[in-house]
Recover the amino acids of this structure.
C-alpha cells in the first residue's frame, strides 16, 4: 500500500504548474503547530458558549439545564488538570465512563465480587427465616440469589426485541411458536468478578384476544401476546457468558 506523505501527491497532474505551486504553498503555510501547554486554553469559555447556545436554541427546557453549574465545574477541573493533547481524549473518556456507570447504578472497576458484604438479606420481606429468602446485591440491584448459598443470577441478561420494532422487553418467551419450553431474561452468573452484560435476542410475536372460554383468537389490538425466538442460535453467545437458568413455570 502506497503511503502519501506530501501535499503534492494529492494534486491532479493535469493542473497547471503555477496553480499547483501556489496551492502547495498555501497548504504548507496553513499548517499550524499547537503547543502542548495550550491544549486546554479556552476550554471553559468554549464549553460555556456551547451550553449557552444550546439553551438559546432549544425548544422547551433542555434536560441538562439544572446540571450546567456542575458540568462547568467539571470542565474547569479538567482544564486545570493540565492534560496534554495525548492524554486529554483518554482521560475525558474515562471520566465519562465513570459518570455513566455511577448514574446507572452500575459497579466500577472489575465489577461485583459476590462477597458476603455485598448482599442484603430480604428474608424478612419474603416472610421466611433469616438467610433462607432472597438476597439482593447492593452494588448491582439487578443481581439476586435465593438463600445465602444460592447461585446468583442477573435479571437483565437478555432483552427480547420484536422483529422490526424499536423496543425491547424482559420476561420470558417460547423457544418456538406454540412451544411450552421457555427462555427467560434471568440468567445465572458464571463466575466473579462479574460485569453486567445484556444480550438482545430477536423474537417473533403475534397478538391475540382472549375469549370467555379461555381460548385465544389472533386479533390486532387484542392485548394478549405470544412471543417466540426468531433464531434460537442467537442464544449461543448468551450461554458463553451466562449459565442457563430455567424460567419459573407460570401456574
Amino acid at each position: 500500500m502506497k503511503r502519501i506523505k506530501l501535499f503534492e501527491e494529492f494534486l491532479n497532474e493535469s493542473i497547471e504548474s503555477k496553480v499547483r505551486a501556489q496551492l502547495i504553498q498555501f497548504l504548507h503555510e496553513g499548517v499550524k503547530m499547537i503547543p502542548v501547554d495550550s491544549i486546554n486554553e479556552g476550554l471553559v469559555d468554549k464549553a460555556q458558549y456551547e451550553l449557552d447556545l444550546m439553551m438559546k436554541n432549544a425548544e422547551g427546557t433542555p434536560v441538562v439545564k439544572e446540571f450546567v453549574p456542575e458540568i462547568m465545574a467539571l470542565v474547569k477541573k479538567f482544564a486545570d488538570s493540565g492534560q496534554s493533547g495525548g492524554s486529554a481524549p483518554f482521560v475525558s473518556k474515562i471520566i465519562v465512563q465513570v459518570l455513566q456507570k455511577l448514574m446507572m447504578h452500575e459497579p466500577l472497576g472489575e465489577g461485583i465480587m459476590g462477597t458476603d458484604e455485598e448482599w442484603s438479606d430480604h428474608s424478612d420481606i419474603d416472610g421466611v427465616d433469616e438467610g433462607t429468602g432472597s438476597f439482593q446485591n447492593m452494588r448491582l440491584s439487578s443481581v439476586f440469589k435465593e438463600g445465602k448459598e444460592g447461585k446468583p443470577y442477573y435479571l437483565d441478561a437478555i432483552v427480547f426485541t420484536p422483529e422490526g420494532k424499536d423496543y425491547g422487553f424482559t420476561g420470558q418467551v417460547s423457544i418456538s411458536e406454540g412451544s411450552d419450553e421457555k427462555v427467560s431474561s434471568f440468567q445465572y452468573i458464571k463466575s466473579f468478578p462479574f460485569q453486567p452484560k445484556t444480550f438482545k435476542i430477536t423474537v417473533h410475536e403475534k397478538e391475540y384476544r382472549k375469549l370467555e372460554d379461555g381460548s385465544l383468537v389472533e386479533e390486532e389490538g387484542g392485548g394478549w401476546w405470544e412471543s417466540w425466538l426468531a433464531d434460537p442460535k442467537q442464544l449461543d453467545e448468551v450461554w458463553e457468558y451466562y449459565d442457563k437458568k430455567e424460567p419459573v413455570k407460570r401456574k
